[in-house]
Amino acid sequence: MKRHVLIFGIVGGLLIATLQYTEYRFVVIEHSVELYGALVAILFAAFGIWLGLRITRRRETIRETVVVREVLVPAKVPAEARALEPFAPNTARQQTLGITARELEILTLVARGFSNREIATQLFVSENTVKTHCARAYDKLGAARRTQAVQRGKELGLLP
Amino acid sequence: MKRHVLIFGIVGGLLIATLQYTEYRFVVIEHSVELYGALVAILFAAFGIWLGLRITRRRETIRETVVVREVLVPAKVPAEARALEPFAPNTARQQTLGITARELEILTLVARGFSNREIATQLFVSENTVKTHCARAYDKLGAARRTQAVQRGKELGLLP
DNA sequence: TGCAAAATCATCCGAAAGGGTGACGACATC
DNA sequence: GATGTCGTCACCCTTTCGGATGATTTTGCA
To answer: What's the pTM value of the predicted model, to 2 decimals?
Structure first.
């Protein structure tokens, strides 16, 4: 958290300096102040949004309400019909295999056909992190490839 | 989500206009551009953070733990559902997509988690051939990766 | 508050996968 | 016989994955 504020300040300062520098060099155009302000506004708004997402990303688990609901699910349903059913991963098996929630989360995205980079973008983490989670999940599932991990995950009731 | 972008634009425009107006009226001192930029930056950073919080806040709702009880359902989903044990691929869809039998055969092996080399060994063909079939299948399925192709194949009823 | 688990990120390297292109033979159809 | 489809294979190049390892930060809990 402290690091966020720090990089916020540093990046902000650098951005302002850069913008000022460029402005002093290219002030020949008209309305440069407006453009300058708009540029700063857009950049910092984007940065702020990113920061807001980043900060609050993990707070969701705090005030969650756990509701236990029982659902009757047909034992065997084809893939097309299964898409609508609420899927509940087999947490018992997940526990015994030692698969963490984050690993399972990434595994579901892998099963949906996303690349590591796409998953990293969606989850606001680096590609390396995704790869680490993947590797651990593969190891715990005894899989050598992502397709194999997906297959195993479906067999074990971990994935929809 | 669209509403957020809308109010973002409106408020942003108002802010810029206000800042320009006030600047033209009161800020005759030196370094007005720097102050102006810093002000805009801070305001928009705060606004961005607020927006980020607002966007993600409503996700902190209820997390329900669903307990699934498997139940044998008679014949709710008729034709495609019952032919599950010996899986019958959706040949109609296969035809319309122009997927050949060989491509589907290789696709099923891909879905089972085999590598191209393993598939080549099993089918007594070269790895290049497997890759060619894969590429054509991916193209016809609109997939960029093998996991995506598997996902699409299952959605379309081509794979078990 | 301190510790263990989990999550995050990085780097290196080799393997796997994917895109593009070209080619050749078998076979069916017209 | 010309045409088209399918299966087969090869080459080159780029991207993506995976394995191994080490490190730091965050979190949850006792």
So the answer is: 0.67
